[in-house]
């Protein structure tokens, strides 16, 4: 039984230790925005938390994927365990470009969370620079 527990700890460290797991993400830059695509299949929309952290210039994605029982309700053996369940958390640091935090939007469909982060428009205004003669 101890060998089984050791194997469980190796294959499912987030569950065994009570720690969170990290979903896989893509960070894509487009001309006017950044896109974050997170793979979180099996998570209910109401379980997802999304937070922009300006002090770290990052997006924090948190949530929980509940473990489901087998379809018929009984297990006769476990042969492979690769899917993580429980709490998850992932911080995605953005490149050093100003973003419009008030217009960050997100959608969740088909197991993917898509976060759209618009870049801040930089308006360059011409101005006169005063100087003094030395």
UniProtKB/TrEMBL annotation:
Known Pfam families for this protein? HSP20
Query: What keywords would UniProt list here?
Result: Stress response
Q: Which residues form the SHSP domain?
A: 16-134
Keyword Transmembrane helix (UniProt)? no
- Record-linked InterPro entries: A-crystallin/Hsp20_dom, HSP20-like_chaperone, Small_HSP
Family (UniProt): Belongs to the small heat shock protein (HSP20) family.
The protein, known as: Heat shock protein Hsp20
Annotated organism of origin: Fimbriimonas ginsengisoli Gsoil 348
């Amino acid at each position: 039984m101890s060998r089984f527990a050791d194997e469980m700890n190796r294959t499912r460290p987030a569950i065994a230790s009570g720690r969170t797991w990290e979903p896989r993400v893509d960070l894509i830059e487009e001309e006017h925005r950044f896109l974050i695509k997170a793979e979180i299949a099996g998570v209910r929309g109401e379980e997802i938390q999304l937070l922009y952290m300006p002090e770290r210039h990052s997006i924090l994605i948190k949530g929980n994927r509940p473990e489901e029982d087998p379809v018929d309700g009984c297990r006769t053996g476990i042969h492979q365990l690769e899917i993580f369940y429980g709490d998850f958390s992932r911080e995605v640091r953005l490149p050093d470009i100003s973003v419009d935090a008030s217009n960050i939007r997100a959608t969740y469909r088909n197991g993917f969370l898509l976060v759209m982060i618009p870049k801040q428009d930089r308006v360059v205004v011409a101005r006169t620079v005063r100087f003094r003669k030395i």
